[in-house]
Design a protein that fits this description.
Layout (H helix, E strand, L loop, with lengths): L2 E14 L3 H9 L6 E14 L3 E5 L6 H8 L7 E6 L3 E5 L10 H11 L4 H15 L14 H14 L4 E5 L7 H16 L3 E5 L3 H7 L2 E6 L2 E7 H16 L3 H17 L1
Parallel strand pairs: 3-7, 3-8, 5-6, 6-7
Antiparallel strand pairs: 1-2, 1-4, 8-9
């Protein structure tokens, strides 16, 4: 099978500053200003054409950071990401300009993707119809609810027919009917053999839709394998993790990061 995504030893480091002044000092006189924060540490996995992979993990595990790196929105600090084909990220308000109308956002995003005016005019009605925003399409996006923004972002992304579709919690907002319509569209993409990354807290949707699971834990890879193998392990972990005190969770995190540092 052809590889559509190769993530090789990817690390993403951010700097956390105590004040705006500390940030400026670090820019002017690069020293040890600020605290290093690792959103990802040595992450590796491969996706083949037609794979549907779910990203799971507790909040702060690095799922959205990895999604953004694969989509080319943020750069990795270390390591390499190879994406064979056009990747499109669907996340709430991802890439949408609040001061522009929904229609203007459609046109801007399609222009950025390389579509000409004739192609945009042809695609625009189907995007608006899929998003179910006919009544609001000429209103500024900053007036939209999170569900409306998600619908617009999803409609644009699926109608441009990308090779790789990355859905980051975009179906967690809005109504159930639109979520079901979106899942049906994703199944169409699956049938076409497109590669998909699905980030969601809904394990039910993961079971229904995904074939493989990447389990991220505090920015590291805990496990990668089939849904049947990994999801039961993750569910058991989550049930146990929820019962931990804050102190126990902090101690567990330090233990995992220490183990990763030794490897």
């Amino acid at each position: 099978m052809n590889k559509s995504i190769v993530v090789d030893d990817v690390t993403k480091k951010y700097k956390l500053y105590n004040s705006p002044g500390e940030r400026i000092l670090d820019l002017l006189f690069p020293r040890n200003y600020g605290e290093d924060f690792y959103a990802l540490r040595g992450v590796s996995f491969e996706a083949h054409k037609g794979d549907v992979i779910g990203f799971v993990g507790t909040n702060g595990s690095g799922k959205s950071t990895l999604s953004n790196i694969i989509a080319g929105i943020v750069p990795e600090t270390k390591g390499q990401v190879t994406v064979n084909g056009q990747a499109s990220l669907i996340a709430v308000a991802s890439g949408l300009k609040g001061d522009l109308s929904g229609r203007d956002n459609i046109e801007l995003k399609l222009l950025m993707l390389g579509f000409n005016k004739q192609e945009i005019q042809k695609l625009e009605p189907s995007i608006i119809e899929f998003a179910e925003l006919e009544q609001f399409i000429d209103q500024p996006v900053k007036s939209y609810s999170s569900g409306m923004k998600s619908r617009l972002g999803f409609a644009i992304s699926v109608n441009v027919d990308p090779d790789i579709l990355i859905i980051d919690e975009a179906l967690s907002v809005g109504d159930k009917a639109f979520a079901e319509k979106s899942l049906a569209k994703m199944k169409e993409f699956k049938a076409k053999g497109k590669t998909m990354i699905f980030v969601s807290h809904s394990l039910g949707q993961m079971k229904q839709f995904c074939e493989k699971i990447l389990w991220l834990e505090f920015g590291t890879v805990r496990a990668f394998g089939s849904v049947d193998e990994i999801l039961p392990q993750y569910e058991a972990f989550i049930n146990k993790f929820k019962k931990m005190s804050k102190k126990e969770k902090d101690e567990y995190k330090q233990q995992i990061l220490a183990q990763h540092a030794l490897n």
